[in-house]
């Protein structure tokens, strides 16, 4: 139970850092949706080796996002491209001792339905900072 709580606390730290980055450095950051966790982690289902999926909407370069993740203590990231239903999207893969993280950068101009998985198009659970914070308190 402690490990699950620690993982969610780490997720909250990541979401807060990403939101601060977008608000401070993206010229239209105030109008961007908040970063969110997607998939099983969004509904409190963490495996022994969890993979946490996060979406962040911004025009900032992927390197700026990666820098924030490393600054808060995550491992050096690798960069990939996700082939999605809305085109190719930049993804950062990184990890900590608690979880693996897949951070997807969504350009604001790309039309994305936040309720749907970007590859399969099926409904997917998601949660913002406030929802996850309530869940662990």
Explain the overall architecture.
With 137 residues, this protein is α+β, with helices and mostly antiparallel strands. Helix content is 31%, strand content 26%. Strands 3-4-5-2-1-6 form a six-stranded mixed sheet. The relative contact order is 0.22. It is globular, with a radius of gyration of 14 Å. A hairpin with a 2-residue loop joins strand 3 (78-84) and strand 4 (87-95). The chain has three helices and six strands, in the order H-E-E-H-E-E-E-E-H. The mean pLDDT is 94. It has a single domain (2-136), classed as Beta Polymerase, domain 2.
**CATH architecture name:** 2-Layer Sandwich
Task: Determine the CATH topology.
Answer: Beta Polymerase, domain 2
The percentage of residues in β strands lies in 25-35%
What's the quaternary structure here?
single chain
Radius of gyration: 14 Å
Low-confidence stretches: none
Largest sheet: 6 strands, mixed
Number of strands: 6
Helix content: 25-40%
Give helix and strand order, one letter per element, not per position: HEEHEEEEH
Q: Which CATH class applies here? A: Alpha Beta
Span between N and C termini?
Answer: 13 Å
Estimate the global geometry from the Cα principal axes.
globular
Average pLDDT reading: 94
Strand order of the largest sheet: 3-4-5-2-1-6
């Amino acid at each position: 139970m402690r490990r699950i709580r620690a993982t969610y606390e780490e997720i909250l730290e990541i979401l807060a850092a990403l939101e601060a980055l977008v608000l401070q450095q993206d010229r239209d950051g105030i109008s961007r949706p908040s970063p969110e966790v997607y998939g099983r982690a969004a509904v409190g289902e963490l495996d022994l080796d969890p993979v946490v999926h996060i979406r962040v909407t911004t025009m900032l370069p992927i390197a700026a996002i990666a820098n924030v993740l490393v600054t808060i203590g995550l491992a050096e990231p690798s960069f990939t491209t996700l082939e999605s239903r809305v085109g190719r999207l930049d993804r950062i893969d990184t990890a900590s001792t608690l979880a693996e993280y897949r951070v997807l950068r969504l350009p604001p101009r790309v039309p994305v339905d936040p309720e749907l998985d970007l590859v399969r198009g099926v409904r997917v659970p998601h949660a913002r900072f406030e929802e996850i914070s309530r869940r662990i308190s």
